[in-house]
Amino acid sequence: MRKLTLNLLIITVLTATLSCKSDSKDAQEQFRERRQAILDRDENTPTATAEDPVATVGKAPAPTSDTPSKPATAAGDKVVGIKDGDTVVLLRNGQEVTVRLYGVDTPEKNQAFGQKAKEYTSNLAFGKNVRLIVNNTDRYGRTVGTIILPDGRSLNEELVRNGYAWHYKAYSNDKNLANAEADARRFKRGLWQDAKPVAPWDFRKEQRSGSSSSTASSTSNAPIPAGATKRTVYLCNSGGSSVYHLDSSCHVLKRCKEEVIKTTEAAAIREYGRRADKTCSR
Fold it and tell me: Biased-composition ranges for Low complexity (predicted)?
């Protein structure tokens, strides 16, 4: 009986020992499987980087060359000169550009409201950054266009609306300018205070005809210098000028407030009744 009991005890111990070894082996195997699963998961999961949206939540993206910057405010063109009421000088890209206002014609400097028109343009635009809407280029090489003031108003329209310019209908059919002139006429603003205001183009024509008639007898038979029909000269298209210039850079010519006409010396003498300027003569 004792022997049987002892044998049973031995068998039980062996069984338990084997069972423990088996359980330990199973546990180790399960541990290895869990560890491998963790490693596999880490390998398949991308590491967060600066470009990873997850890594940058709550952070501003780093600027790159492709990131659009805040648009800069356009400064526009600066008005650096006022030649007369309807002609200004702009500074564009470091260069001066003469601009003749489109569709308007202000009185000449020796006409009523001529100086006031220049002062009005200066008060509205001089030294300010404006926007130029180009219309075309005239025969004198000037840019013809509309000047938009910093507050959005059109300088061209303001001149006409306040009676400092005529709507130049020979070169413009702009409805806004036509309405602005009708408004100025109605309320007798500016030059419309005069009973019979003379249009600038008519004034220039009278000045030219008056000058040519007074000198017709002396210029119709005036001697023409050799080569005058081919020689280019320059003259200021103003009633107050009686000379032509051989040099376009003459300082006298640069003071011209009107158009500078390029023509032949013969035409300057016979058609315009001009004589050679001695100030800058070569």
Answer: 209-220
